[in-house]
Amino acid sequence: MLGKFTLKVTALSYKLGFGIKSVPTHKDSIFTVSLIGRPNVGKSTLFNRLAGTKLALTDNTPGLTRDRKEVITDILGYPIRVVDTAGWEMTKVNEVDIRKKMKEQTANALIYSDLALLLFDVREGITENDLDLSRWLKKNIKIPKSMPNPENQPVIPSNQTVKRIILVGNKAESGYDYSDVYNEVYQLGYGEPMLISAEHGDGMHELLKEIDKEVPTEQKKAFEDKKAKRVKRFEEIKAQLKRDLIKLRETQENPDDIDIEEWEKEFDKININPEENSDLDSDSEVDPLTTLTTEAVNTKTGIQTENLYSRRPIQVSIVGKPNVGKSTFVNSFLQDDRVIADDLAGTTRDAISIQWVYKGRKIVLVDTAGITRRSSSKSALEKKIEQTSLATIRYSHVVICLIDALEAFRVQDMNVIQHVIEEGRGVVLVVNKWDLVVPEWRARAMKFMRKQVEKSLGSVKSVPLHFISALQKKKVDAIMDEVLQVYEKWNIRISTGMLNDWLQRFLKVENLPSDEGDKLKIKFITQVKTRPPTFVIFVNSKRLFKTNYMKFMKTNLTTEFGLTGVPVRILVRDTTHQKVKRRLEIRRNNRRMKKMLLRRNSQYSLAKEKLAKLKSMQRLDKNSKVNS
User: With contact defined as beta carbons under 8 Å apart, do 178 and 172 qualify?
Assistant: First the structure.
């Protein structure tokens, strides 16, 4: 298939008792650091330290991390990717279990890493698992002379292998003497180790300096250029919107209704720190003049492959209850066992990021642990796992909510979906295990589920709903097409002119609400933010803007601009209140100025009196001297 592909590289082949395997992946321009080592040496703790937050689960339970986990962090002042891998354990040749799959994931991570940190525990010394991993690394890492180019797809950069491995001794708090394991360390063959304590931060400064040396200067400069472009883009968007408002103001009967100064304050307030705002990247927005046409909205066109390296990845998370088939669903996309899938509920314990390419678009798929119902009997580890899954939603662009066809749309499912909407993410609903539903009941079940969605998710209209079998890989491809369309709608920016044209048509059809003789007056509408689309409506009185009227307006706006599957936010600002507030502020400032002037006049008068008394005393003193 030319539309959907995963680039295969043979930069790393490995023997784990089950033959040599080439691993599907692709490499982008971000410098990648992998953390490798046996179980419970502190890889996840170091991962969290580098990420600047607790993204990976940490616990005293060995082997807690099963799949590899990735994060892009700016701890060095520019983005680098850090990969947390499963613990390396020796396995027998014919052994087939989760531990074998965990070793596969560790090996896969090294394919697109630029640097690897090999961790060991200085308190426990070098074990057989440490030696086994060291032998495997020396035997299997191979640097290819050139990279393959399957199906004439975009050429992948040749820097696909680990250029350096840094030996890191963890749990070495300040003052700890590790001389008793000194000789053992040199058996690994990687020279003098760097000593750190990931838990307490000891030695981290030196480790970060060493990582910084390995990062190309070009990547650091590219990030500074991107920040400058974001600020420029911010100024361009603001200037264009301001011009649109000025034109609109000229066409109004009462130009004063459009307060450009108030709009400018609101725009700056919502779009703070433009250089840190990735929304301002040129590839993150969609031109409504092209996307709102029938062809663009209703046709599954995809995106051309030449944009593979020029467009940024879409963050797509898979969420749902335990054992609904999330990992199987991800593997059916990739056509490879990227994440560990098993009939045992809770096989996935952490949020796992996967780089992928679909129709020329870079995708970051995130497979999350199952979200269980609220219960006071949950262990501390179970609570950590669930919090990680919920936090993943916050960093996503589009969320695929997976639902079990045999237990569809229970309270737990609706709570998860509602959380996604509240976070402002694009949403696609997928009912899995559709093959288990009796064929003669499918049409009735489908109709019932669609009604449940419309009834429960009134705030988001026409949420995409798909029925699939991930295990049989039926109707899976259509979901990613839907994700791309939802992502474009989530990024859409609509001009002020188009919005106010719609507003005028809407106001002609719908009666404005009133209360005790006061009638609502809507002055104008403008979009102040994307991701999700956020609009501000300026009215004469916020009190008159009723909740039902807001719901109806939001529905009409969503339908008009095709914003299905996207939470739309509308903010209401009271211009009368703002004007009164400004007048009161001016009065307060005037009072302050008067008080200051009075205080200064009083001080001046006192000083004048003191000076007069001093001069009088000087004259009396002079006269007394003359008389004497």
Answer: yes
pLDDT band per the 50, 70, 90 thresholds, residue 565: confident
Q: Which domain holds residue 110?
A: 9-215
Residues 298 and 409 in one domain: yes
Q: Find the angle CA(66)-CA(77)-CA(399) to the nearest 5 degrees.
A: 45
Give the angle 220-221-224 at the CA atoms, nearest 5°.
95
> Is 397 found in the same domain as 313?
yes
* 396-405 per-position pLDDT tens digit: 999 999 999 9
In a domain, residue 267? The reply is no
Q: Within this chain, do residues 297 and 181 fall inside the same structural domain, yes or no?
A: no
Same domain, 211 and 293: no
Asked which of 215, 244, 279 is the last residue of a domain, the reply is 215
pLDDT band at residue 167 using 50, 70 and 90 as cut-offs: very high
Mean pLDDT of 50-57: 67
Bridge partner list, 430? 402, 466
Residue at token pair 């680098």: 80
- Using CA atoms, how far apart are residues 507 and 186, in angstroms rounded to an integer? 78
Judge whether 176 and 124 are in contact, CB under 8 Å: no
Question: Does residue 415 lie in a domain region?
Answer: yes
The continuous run of DSSP H or E covering 20 comes out as: none
CB atoms under 10 Å from CB of 376, counted, come to 4
* Whole-number pLDDT of residue 12: 33
Compute the distance between CA of residue 284 and CA of residue 313 in angstroms, rounded to an integer: 10
Domain boundary among 166, 200, 215: 215
Lowest-confidence pick of 89-103, 341-355, 457-471, 503-517: 341-355
Count of Cβ atoms closer than 10 Å to residue 482 Cβ: 20
- Rounded mean pLDDT, 36-48: 90
Identify the sign of the CA torsion 427, 431, 433, 434: negative
What does the block give as tokens for 239?
A: 């200037």
- CA–CA separation, 346 vs 351, rounded Å? 12
Can you list the positions of beta strands (E) in 437-595? 465-467, 514-515, 518-519, 522-529, 534-539, 569-574
Q: Is the peptide bond between 274 and the residue preceding it cis, with omega within 30 degrees of 0?
A: no
Structure tokens at 571: 């903010």
> What count of other Cβ atoms lies within 10 Å of the Cβ of residue 66?
21
Rg (C-alpha) for the chain, rounded Å, is 32
Query: At a CB cut-off of 8 Å and minimum separation 6, what does 122 contact?
Result: 169, 170, 171, 172, 176, 178, 181, 195
Confirm if 466 and 428 have CB atoms less than 8 A apart.
yes
Run of H or E residues at 558: helix 547-560
CA dist list (Å): 477 to 163, 467, 483, 484: 36, 12, 10, 12
- Residue entry with tokens 């030319």: 2
* CATH code of the domain containing 206: 3.40.50.300
In this structure, are strands 426-432 and 32-36 parallel, antiparallel, or unpaired? unpaired
Q: Are 513 and 536 in contact (CB under 8 A)?
A: no
Q: Rounded CA gap, 312 and 223, in Å?
A: 13
- Do residues 382 and 372 touch, judged by C-beta distance below 8 A? yes
Give tens-digit pLDDT for 168-198.
999 888 766 777 777 788 888 888 899 999 9
